[in-house]
Write a structure and sequence with these properties.
Two copies of one chain form a homodimer. With about 375 residues, chain A is of the alpha/beta class. Helices cover about 40% and strands about 15% of the residues of chain A. In chain A, strand 12 (about 305-310), helix 13 (about 315) and strand 13 (about 325) form a beta-alpha-beta unit. Chain B binds a DNA duplex (30 and 30 nucleotides) through helix 2 and helix 4.
DNA sequence: GAGTGGCTCTGAATCGATATAGTTTATCGA
DNA sequence: TCGATAAACTATATCGATTCAGAGCCACTC
């Protein structure tokens, strides 16, 4: 082990004392020292004082959490599993709102939140999951039904997947992405928009760029991106519009979402048949689209309507404020945290969403 | 321990298998099974295959990280210590930028970031620190030289304090808050501003409200807030202005910073002697001051100049863009992470800051 | 043919605590 | 005065792995 020795004067080095050292110093059994820390009612107050004083004198740091974790079978930590670089995690407002909710619950319960090294899609992150000394996992990986879930199962610890697909028999928290984005799209359609376009999430590392017709449903089936796209398509087709006429823009995860939204939005706005309504799969992307519109002097909502998704603080800080799908991000985090904390059996929780109409959408411009 | 038993058919329940079970099943020693996982070169490839196959067959999750951690003396986790509710941590852009930097380094190193339950100022969070199975700590508590540091020392693990005071003999990363805020203040003074005001950080749970004259230097000495206030005072006095004439607004940590800045900014702008220059101790607060100015029709920078601090994304997303003190938040996180990772001895690192002049400051209006 | 070295594999000690099942002594009611 | 009960402590096994110091065996060298 790492030898954290310290100097105690002269030429004497000593390693960190253990509970046994304290026991010997006081002349009691290890059990009693342990009880002094964990079950004060099991020994006399006088002896307890003596033990704690001796411990302080020796510089004993208290019972080693790792050893205690081994014996007790609990570590008091839950792990968060993510499949993108962590620096991205700390930049995504939606995930941060989720984490704020989650950490609040665990904070109150005195449990730590271990943010694990990110899972690489190729190595399935097996080693990362296998090496984490935690009591359970929350997975916010975009694709849930793959080898990474298998690795979680292998670990034989409780886990909750967030926004994941229809995997059965496990704890899962999410929203109805499909219906929510259908609602958002229908909002535009109800306003008379007929030339729609989509800016899809950059996550999942699989670009969806191309006309909708070419976006394959296969591996996307269980992703947030895929579900939202399906919902948009539902609404478009329900309105009798040809899905193939709706351009879908997306790329892999190479740049921050707002500049990305601006770039993709620009591509859409520069098309010959300029869309009058854009469905963006996140507020950041939508904000980027607004940026692109502003650059081109395209008025929002006069000439262009934009809907976002998530209702993060961005939605209300941009101008015009975004019409967007509100989802209870903090509640999602709280729910996931509680499921794990309470050791819930396989449970599927679907939280409600709601379209928040603000200033970025309006009636379609005349032809 | 928690008994994660599983059903294997008939009426047989079995607990999670251990390395010993695998060893017995294959008919080899525990050492050899351990080597199969940790030192593949120590056994024949053929036997290793056989062991891994048996392990998979038994449903062995691999070596238990906690037991391994005990034996090896390392857990592969570093703990982050914070003294405010965690939900606040996930809302503060400056801290998030810091964490992004930190987590990036640890992500690459395969190390987990354990966000510990928040330390309550009253209980000194001793139990939280004592119970964390980590290899070291990063502390971003506002006040560093108090009982919480003592608790860290007690734990006898390496730790790095961030933005903390002048504690000696430990790893510390920070900036020169005092000089940086003096620079920002001097910028306003150089522009001819003579009626200044300060919006101080809400952190530290000790309100500084009142005129500067009444803000006591004592316990604030080692806080970020205190250092920045001292720097502002340095510049004000160097310019020959009476420090007592500079109103300082702050409250305890009861509301999110932007609305708080708006409220406090409003109070300042409604004074008979309206200030022409406001030094805000964070960009969020500064943005709130801009909000207050906009509400009152006070032109920025025509009638009012505002400087922020940190240079978070907020600084450039508001309008007008904020003149602010840029500090290398991500680098700060990276540095802290590396110090811990490399087991650096007591080191003090002070990173450079730089005033970024943008659109929120201009010449003082005529009298 | 003894000596050397490399490859596989093993046994026992160890990491630092907690749980379980006592033992001893004092207290108390009948 | 006896048995029962409670209070204060203890001895030992155990949690699940890794480390260290070899043992056995084979090939190869001089």
């Amino acid at each position: 082990m790492i030898d954290h020795r310290y100097w105690i004067g002269q030429d004497v080095f000593v390693t960190t004392p253990t509970l046994a050292d304290v026991a010997e110093a006081v002349g009691v059994s290890r059990t009693t020292v342990s009880n002094a820390y964990n079950r004060p009612d099991q020994l006399s107050a006088e002896l307890r004082e003596r033990i704690l004083a001796a411990a302080a004198g020796l510089g004993y740091p208290g019972p080693d959490p790792v050893a205690r974790g081994l014996r007790r079978g609990r570590t008091g930590m839950f792990g968060l599993v993510y499949d993108q670089p962590l620096s991205y995690l700390f930049t995504d407002p939606a995930i941060l709102a989720f984490m704020a909710g989650m950490s609040g619950v665990w904070d109150d319960a005195g449990v730590s939140l271990a943010v694990l090294p990110s899972l690489h899609p190729d190595d399935a992150g097996t080693s990362v999951l296998a090496a984490a000394g935690v009591d359970g996992f929350v997975s916010i990986c975009d694709v849930a039904d793959d080898s990474r879930v298998a690795a979680l199962v292998t670990r034989r610890l409780p886990f909750v997947t967030v926004d994941a697909g229809e995997s059965s028999g496990r704890c899962r928290v999410g929203i109805d992405d499909r219906r929510a984005s259908a609602d958002a799209t229908r909002h535009l359609l109800d306003l008379g928009h007929r030339r729609l376009a989509v800016v899809a999430l950059p996550r999942g590392r699989r670009a969806l760029t191309g006309s909708a017709g070419t976006a394959r449903p296969g591996p996307e089936r269980f992703t947030v991106s895929g579900a939202r796209l399906a919902g948009i398509r539902d609404a478009v087709e329900a309105a009798g519009l040809p899905w193939a006429s709706v351009p879908v823009q997306s790329v892999a995860d190479l740049e921050p979402p707002r500049p990305l939204g601006r770039r993709l939005g620009g591509l859409l706005l520069d098309r010959a048949e300029r869309p009058t309504g854009v469905v963006a799969m996140s507020d950041e992307l939508a904000a980027g689209v607004l940026d692109a519109a502003a650059e081109r002097g395209v008025e929002v909502p006069g000439q262009l309507s934009v809907v976002g998704f998530d209702d993060t603080p961005t939605a209300t800080s941009v101008s015009p404020a975004l019409t967007t799908v509100h989802q209870p991000l903090a509640a999602k985090g709280q729910t996931a945290a509680r499921l794990l904390l309470e050791g819930a059996p396989a449970t599927v929780i679907r939280l409600p969403t709601e379209l928040r109409v603000r200033a970025s959408t309006g009636p379609a411009p005349g032809p």
